[in-house]
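User: Hey, quick favor. My workstation is busy. Could you predict this chain's structure for me?
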Amino acid sequence: MRYQFKFRPYQRRFLRSLTTNHGKWDIREGIILRLTDESGKVGWGEIAPISWFGSETLEQALDFCRQLPAEITDETIFSIPDELPACQFGFESACEWGSEFFSIPNTQSFSGLLPSGKAALNQLETLWQQGYRTFKWKIGVNAIADELEIFDSLIHTLPPFTKLRLDANGGLSYEEANLWLRTCDNLKANAELPLEIEFIEQPLPVEQFQRMLELSTSYETAIAIDESVATLGQLATCHQQGWRGIFVIKPGIVGSPSRLRKFCQQHEIDTVFSSVFETAIGRLAALQLAAELSQNNRAIGFGIDHFFEQEEPWLQSLWNDL
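Assistant: No problem, here it is.
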């Protein structure tokens, strides 16, 4: 198949800075792709890299797009190198666009992302009213004593039978990870608090995988790995090294959708699919993969709309001059 290829870079400013252990993030930048096949059918894709998470940089993605001719083929798309995982996702998604659409789940199927620090307490009620019943809170950002104090307030504020995920983005020391896991285990043993700490996400840096493997068998509270499995290569390596816990997969940067399908179907891993703060174009493709490949009915990490203004007007205007 041959395609006419066009692309446009974009920028979206967060309504409030997203603060994680990796620092502050103010502007989401990416690339929207358009492929038109020989019959005139149009497919859309999105390249939304996060270089500090393990993907290529935006500049590398732009360089790749700029060097492509105006007409490309399937062969071009399926030979994109593994060093460009966000490009693999964007181009393959554009090929598949419109082939199998589905209804987007309601917010009860989504995990709502809370801001770090005390701001989480203010955001909680709004997200609850919007229908969220699973929440994710960023830890490893402030001093652990302060975060444990806020955590105590948070668990007493959360309505009964909600689920809470704690995401450290690899920002804890080994001692801090043990303290968080002990705290969560103690909470689990307290029958008077009817809420669930679903898991702690990526407590330690990527290079401390063996220690996370050890921690995963030492506590009742589950551990999920995220930065450790940013790309398909890392996903396969962690599985080979014995990880049988939860894998947080970000479709937008993991790489080839077709190879991801093959891996997940072959190994039947426990997955949570998660956003990379992409636009509606990348999100539709990511949600399709989540719908196909999720095994254990876990809420998916796409409850992030409240971090941006409504996107449709600027997304449409991006293509007005074509």
